Automatic annotation (TrEMBL), chain A:
The lineage of its organism: Bacteria, Bacillati, Actinomycetota, Actinomycetes, Pseudonocardiales. SUPFAM superfamilies: ACP-like. Coiled coil: none annotated. Residues 1-78 form the Carrier domain. This is Acyl carrier protein. It comes from Lentzea flaviverrucosa. Gene3D superfamilies: ACP-like.
Length: 83, 353
């Protein structure tokens, strides 16, 4: 699940920024290519792709800094929904 | 239907119509273009179009006709430039009206549709009940009603059509552009200007508080007089933002009201017009206020009211480092310690007056 989420998130980002290379753990905001608009697109993408609504307390930059952190967020949301 | 139902469903709201969509044959002109290429344009209709245009009401066309022939006829009459996203095709008119609403990014309840054929009026009314339908025979009275009288007529109303026409060119350029969104934005040469609100900005500022839903932190509306008092209050900063690019202006598109204080400044309201939603400029005004508060040695708090339509704004605050410090039902206060403030995006020049 987590690996699948990582792949989907990475694909979404590299479609938008084909020239940038980064690892799953790397801070994509620190790399400087993520603007506020893209941050919003990330939220929308994750909610749509994984059929979840991210609660307010999870909506902070810390959860979106890297592919790995976003996949963790997805895992928390989907397990919360099942449990 | 009971009397109260009627009142609730057709309650006229002043200035709710932002765009009038016109039929052509036997509405804008006498006769049928396909049968008679010399159709006579009705001067009383043209007069109405020009009158409403000057008030900032937009116009478009939904006509079943040959597209090129109809546009050529409109051009000869000097009328083509009045119509945004004209839909001249053989599709149902409800589809055309829907498309226009989508292109203009306005609600269906902000559209009036004018036609002489009962069939067309009923087709649109049935498919899109929110649209106001007007029989061509009744335009003199209908278009004089208060639904067609904007609550605000500002400097910007008079040029609204030009703003949208620039947007049409810009949108086409975006469609034609093959690179990433970021790369496209950097081709626009955007300048974002932030200044203290002047008296002549207040009508537009009031209008923004009424018209802006999605990128609005509180949904609260402010009257001209309230804004004028706040503008001159020593404890407050009322900031307006505008955006221009190589295709022209977007007009005044942002507003922020800040109350200065210690230990925290308080952002009472911030909004950004949906015109600039796709321009990645949502955080620029917020970051500016954050820098001002930080320079004053203060923290920054922000009022936020969940309206059901403004989640984008919540994300904007959250990603700028704000977190909830109190909540009363749907009314929140957010706060940032201002440890981290994002620089403006590289594709944008920020100009502070």
């Amino acid at each position: 699940m987590s690996n699948d989420a990582r792949t989907q998130i990475r694909t979404f980002i590299t479609t938008k920024f084909p020239d940038v290379t980064f690892s799953d753990e790397e801070d994509i905001f620190a790399l400087g290519f993520v603007n506020s608009l893209f941050a919003m697109e990330l939220v929308m993408f994750i909610e749509k792709a994984f059929g979840t609504r991210i609660p307010n307390e999870e909506l902070h930059l810390g959860n979106f800094r890297s592919v790995a952190l976003m996949a963790d967020l997805v895992a928390r949301q989907t397990s919360a929904a099942v449990g | 239907m009971t009397q109260t139902d009627v009142v609730a469903s057709v309650k006229p709201k002043r200035g709710r119509i932002k765009c009038v969509v016109w039929d052509l044959d036997n509405t804008l002109w006498d006769g049928t273009l396909l049968e008679d290429s010399a159709v006579r344009v009705r001067p009383e209709v043209v007069e109405e179009i020009k009158r409403l245009d000057a008030l900032g009401v937009l116009h478009s066309v939904a006509s079943r006709n040959d597209h090129d022939a109809a546009m050529a006829r409109l051009k000869v009459e000097g009328l083509d430039e009045y119509f945004l996203y004209p839909q001249i095709n053989w599709n149902p008119k409800s589809q055309s009206v829907e498309r226009i609403a989508k292109e203009l990014n306005i609600g269906l309840d902000a559209i009036a549709f004018v036609d002489d054929q009962p069939f067309e009026l009923e087709e649109v009314a049935h498919a899109l009940p929110a649209v106001k339908t007007v029989d061509t025979a009744r335009i003199a009275t209908e278009l004089a009603s208060e639904e067609f009288q904007p609550r605000f007529v500002t400097d910007e109303s008079r040029v609204r059509r030009d703003l949208y026409r620039a947007a049409v060119v810009r949108d086409q350029a975006e469609l034609d552009y093959t690179g990433t969104n970021e790369a496209f934005l950097s081709t626009l040469d955007m300048t974002f200007t932030i200044s203290r609100a002047k008296r002549e900005d207040l009508q537009r500022a009031e209008e923004l508080t009424v018209r802006t839903n999605q990128l609005n932190s509180t949904g609260r509306t402010y009257s001209y007089d309230e804004l004028d008092a706040l503008r001159t209050s020593p404890d407050h900063l009322l900031l307006v933002a505008s955006l221009t690019d190589k295709y022209g202006g977007y007009g005044k598109i942002g507003l922020a009201l800040v109350e200065r204080g210690q230990p925290a400044w308080h952002l009472r309201m911030m909004l950004m017009s949906c015109r600039v939603m796709a321009r990645g400029v949502g955080t620029v005004l917020l970051n500016h206020v954050m820098r001002l508060a930080k320079a004053d040695g203060a923290r920054l708090r922000a009022d936020f009211v969940e309206t059901g339509r403004n989640r984008v704004m919540y994300v904007t605050y959250a990603f700028a480092g704000f977190s909830e410090i109190s909540r009363d039902d749907n009314r929140l206060v957010l706060e940032s310690g201002l440890d981290q403030i994002q620089p403006p995006p590289a594709y944008l020049k920020v100009n502070v007056e």
